[in-house]
Design goal:
Blueprint (H helix, E strand, L loop, with lengths): L1 H35 L3 H5 L2 E9 L2 E6 H14 L2 E11 L5 E9 L2 E12 L2 E11 L1
Parallel strand pairs: 1-6
Antiparallel strand pairs: 1-2, 3-4, 4-5, 5-6
Organism: Hymenobacter swuensis DY53
Keywords: Signal
Pfam families: DUF4783 (PF16022)
C-alpha cells in the first residue's frame, strides 16, 4: 500500500514539474525567436520598463528603449550563429528564468534571462551574457 502511494505521488509530482517547465519554456519561446533572429526590436517587446543588462559582469540598468539600443549594438557586434535555451527554472517566488547558450561569430556566451510579472504578464527584467 505504501509503495503504491509512493509511486502514485512520484508520478503526479513528476507530471506537475514537467508541466511547469513546459509553461516556463512557452513563455521564453518568442524571446528565443527574437534572439535567434538578432532582432532587438522584437526582443524589446518583452522588456520590463527597466531592464538590467550585464556583459561579462559589467551590469547596468536601462529603460526599455535604451536596452533595445544596447541589444541592437550587441547583436551587430556579435551576431548569433546559434542560440537555444538549455535550462528553464523558477525561484521560490515563481520568478521564471532561463539559461541559454549564445554562439556568436567571435565566441560562445552563457546567457541568463530572468522575467518578472509586470501588468499581468511576464516581461524580461534581466539579461546576462558571460563569455565562455
Amino acid at each position: 500500500m505504501k509503495r503504491t502511494f509512493f509511486l502514485a505521488f512520484t508520478l503526479v509530482w513528476g507530471l506537475l514539474l514537467s508541466m511547469g517547465a513546459m509553461a516556463q519554456g512557452e513563455a521564453f519561446g518568442p524571446v528565443r525567436s527574437a534572439i535567434r533572429s538578432s532582432s532587438s526590436h522584437d526582443l524589446a517587446q518583452f522588456f520590463a520598463p527597466t531592464v538590467e543588462l550585464s556583459f561579462d559582469g559589467d551590469k547596468q540598468s536601462y529603460s526599455a528603449t535604451q536596452a533595445e539600443f544596447v541589444m541592437k549594438d550587441f547583436f551587430a557586434k556579435h551576431s548569433p550563429a546559434s542560440f537555444d535555451f538549455i535550462h528553464y527554472g523558477g525561484s521560490n517566488e515563481g520568478t521564471p528564468y532561463a539559461v541559454g547558450k549564445y554562439t556568436g561569430k567571435d565566441g560562445a556566451y552563457r546567457m541568463f534571462v530572468k522575467m518578472k510579472q509586470v501588468g499581468g504578464g511576464l516581461k524580461i527584467a534581466t539579461i546576462d551574457f558571460t563569455k565562455e
